Amino acid sequence: MDAVLYDKVRAVEWREGGVRLLDQRVLPSTLRYEECATAREVAAAITAMVVRGAPAIGVTAAYGAVLAVTEAYRRVPTDWRAAARADLTVLRESRPTAVNLGWALDRMERVMEAVGAEPPVATLLTAARRLHDEDIAANRRMGALGAALLPPKARVLTHCNTGALATGGYGTALGVVRAAAAVGGISMVYADETRPWLQGARLTAWELVEEGLPVTVLADGAAAARLRSGDIAAVLVGADRIAANGDTANKIGTYGLAVSARHHGVPFYVVAPISTIDAATPDGRGIPIEERAESEVLCCQGVAHSPAGARAWNPVFDVTPAVLITALITERGVVQHPDTEGIARLLTSPIPA
Ligand code: MRU
To answer: Is 240 a catalytic site residue?
Structure first.
């Protein structure tokens, strides 16, 4: 039997001395890969959205760190650490909101700093691969925990893309959909189109169609009306950064969805690995929100649809206050009504075997 999509397609892969990225800007019409041979190429690909989704960005940056050290040693063998650190800074700044990026680079930097005069390229590659594998394992675990919260044959609503493409593999919120589909079945996944990059209409819909799971794409503005219909069991979203009190940054539009879900009495679940929690940021006010070019809003697929002279505001993420979140689903467990105490307990809880 054919492997399912999430086992066949990897957003990011290490390939003989480089990183291979599935170019998510052109999916689903074109299946094209971009090969990055240097850390700076990796950073540019992250900024340009070739790869996107917080956990996938973290995994990509980890492989980018391997390239940074390899090149640094080739260029400046006597002071390779300083040269590598400069590239790590470029990687770190490639996108500001997803904390998984800095988390992955901190982890790689600890490996880089721990050893002697020779660059630890093989050890770094092993560390990057472990980080990648751990992300997939975390997604599987979250999938099982999240599926247990859904009724059989649920109809769910999701935003952006949180699947195999946004992660090391399998997915966070979409991982819960996959796990639920395997256990009690899923009647329908309503996927917000997610303007302006259309991660829902292009990427989530593609992942689900390829696996034979039912999907209905909604214009973002249709989500509230769908929630009012009363047949949605839950809203499932991912996260780019979760503050210590549970306030959650995710794709722009998530906040409005959370307000609407609360108004209509629909459970609102955030599904994210521990690496997305930023314990150093007390609440959502401290989360940096990326703003991208106005042209992303004023044009669609390169074609301008607003008159010349119109301005656009293009924040890429918004912050959902913790009070609107029914539960946070992580690989270490589920936190109902997340707040500072609940998240602190989660972070000190033992890692399940
Ligand atoms: O701008 P993007 O496409 O990188 O934004 C992605 C999201 O907002 C996702 O919901 C989030 O990273 C969680 S992915 C598992």
So the answer is: yes
Say if CB 177 and CB 144 are below 8 A apart.
no
CATH architecture of 3-136: Up-down Bundle (1.20)
Does position 272 have pLDDT exceeding 50, yes or no? yes
pTM of the model: 0.97
- In angstroms, what is the C-alpha Rg of the chain? 20
Give the pLDDT confidence of 146-168 residue by residue, as tens digits. Answer: 999 999 999 999 999 999 999 99
Using the mean position of ligand 1's atoms as its centre, give its distance from the Cα of residue 142 in Å: 17
Token representation of residue 69: 């050290």
- For domain 150-348, the CATH architecture is 3-Layer(aba) Sandwich (3.40)
Domain boundary assignment for the chain: 3-136, 150-348
* Ligand 1 contact via 199 beta carbon (within 6 Å): yes
Catalytic residue, candidates 240, 247, 278, 318 = 240
**How many other C-beta atoms are found inside a 10 Å radius of the C-beta of residue 19?**
27
Question: With the CA atoms of 31, 290, 131 and 139 taken in that order, what torsion angle do they form, in degrees rounded to the nearest 10?
Answer: -70
Instruction: Check whether 1 has a pLDDT greater than 70.
Output: no
Predicted pLDDT of residue 115: 65
Instruction: Tell me the percentage of the chain whose pLDDT exceeds 90.
Output: 92
- 96: which 2 tokens? 């500001």
